[in-house]
Amino acid sequence: MTDQNPSSDRGGAAIEAERAAEKLTFTGAARWMIILCTLAAIGLAVNQLFNLRLGGFSFLEGMYLYLLAGLFLSLTFITFRAWGPPSAVVPWYDWVLAFVTLGISAYFTTTAGVSLDSGWEYAAPPTAVWCSVVLYLLILEGTRRAGGMVLFCIVLLFSLYPTFAEHVPDPLNGFTQPFIEVVPYFMISSEASFGIPMRAFGNLVIGFILFGAILQFTGGGRFFNNLALSLVGRYRGGAAKVSIFASGFMGSMSGSVISNVLTTGSVSIPAMKRTGFSARYAAATEACASTGGVLMPPIMGATAFVIASWLSRPYVEIMLAAAIPSLLYFFGLFVQIDAYSARRGLKGMARADLPGVRQTLREGWLYIAVFALLIFLMVAFRWETTAPFYAVLLLLVVNQFNRKDRMSWQGFLGVIASVGRTLAELVAVLLGIGMIVGAFQATGLTGPLANELVHMAGSSVPMLLIMGAVTSFIFGMGMTVTACYIFLAVVLAPALVQAGLNELAVHLFILYWGMVSFITPPVALGAFAAATMAGAGAMRTGFEAMKLGGVIYFVPFFFVLNPALIGQGSPTEVVVVLICALIGVWFLSAALQGYVSFVGPLESNALGRVMRIVLFVAALMIAAPAGGVAGMSHVTLTLVGFVLALLPLSVAWRAGRQCGQPA
Questions:
Q1: Which residues lie closer than 8 Å to 49 by C-beta, 6 or more apart?
Q2: Domain assignment present for 489
Q3: Which of 26, 45, 396, 511 is the most exposed place for a label (fewest CB within 10 A)?
């Protein structure tokens, strides 16, 4: 029986809509519209990013972004219905909106050069003004369809904010401008809809999403799932441990928690239930693993590329910085699952049901080679924008020599249609949230707001971080991860950086806390989606996911206070801090589950509960990123944590020896 509450009802509606959308199959003119627009956009991106100058013509960046936006925003009206359930039947008025979008984008493309030279964002001619108004309305409607009513209302409010900014009390008071002047600024300037979010999409996101889709459809997803099965499937809790690797990897490619739960969960959740996991725990495991996938290199979903563009840094720097926090999160999941399995005496999967390591590698080693090429091109040559296209080309060539997963022409068209629908949804959202950025730029509010936040927090870094975490969590409940990140990068990040924190760590901090809402009630859409598939209670699954993914609440504070945990420090410092953090995460996970892996259980009696609290405190002290607590230095705090942990560890060891339970 599922929990009945308003939050789960809203979550259930969103989950059912996404599930229905996943199953849609477009045919006829709609399918060919999606395929042709997507192929045109990919070709346009290849021409621009490789500087091919086909036809002897080179596009300005603005022209390129207008064309991409027009192609994909038009597909939003083909793939998403104005109201009612998802449907593959496209009404006549959606065709009209799609072609109007293409026409408006063509106008802005052809006038991009004149617009740039004449400063149309501040003094547009009448035709450009009215075309801007039409495009503004189309973007709002596209955002509503792709991002939902909550995001639509937020974007609408902020897009109108410059028209009444001077009437808003401090700290949000700003310059007021007429609506007819604000809209051209949103549509023509490089600071709003066609600013950083769309530049990140055009330069980075499109190639990596194409790579992820091609990899999945050519058998790469099944190969990595089989590899995880062959490596850890036979150990206790093997089905859940496989889910961590498989769902984490697929989440990294797709960048969507919900769609990842709905795809990999259909296999992993039944497997976990068959090997003794409760429905609730199986659903929580899938939700946590899928959430972590969006935080895991090398792909990390779309938001990581937006971070790279926002900070004007190579994507490989973002990828490497995110590696250690991602390791800590998945290590925490792994240890908790091991402790849960040991506490309940769960076994691994039968060897007969598992693929062999050698056979799996023999059949799929080429997928590893493709990944190696991708990472090599990004790290060695810094080809972040073009590397995924080389990887896609190699993947398509390799696939033709694989009889089992060889992609047919119809299969290829199906992949392109799927990619087009994904990119259309993303572009509609990015264009909408770009107006939030533009609103703060137009009113001149960004700098003063950061100063005001620092003043409100009393220049206290911990208070600012807590304010940032709560704000990120709240906005993460009603917005997509990318939308939440961009909003907070404008409003909150400057204040945290101004307080003396590492800039890259601050932006990753916002990303992590924006993801927390996927496993935290009352929204917890990732947990609710998994609970629906497992037949478990939604709210109880959400709370189970909170405990299982508990590391995610602490790791952002760790690395933002000590950037060595994102690789910002000397090699010695990074290694020492990482080792302490891993031990701290191990103890933290043990305290949450009541079992110390490789040591023994902490019983559910009064002594055991006290020892779990002691171990929890010790874990935070060991993993603590800085000193200053009770006047102790960082080293002293860590040493005290180790000494404090000895007592619960000895109790767990003694309990394990008495009951003869394997560690």
A1: 203, 207, 385, 386, 389
A2: no
A3: 396
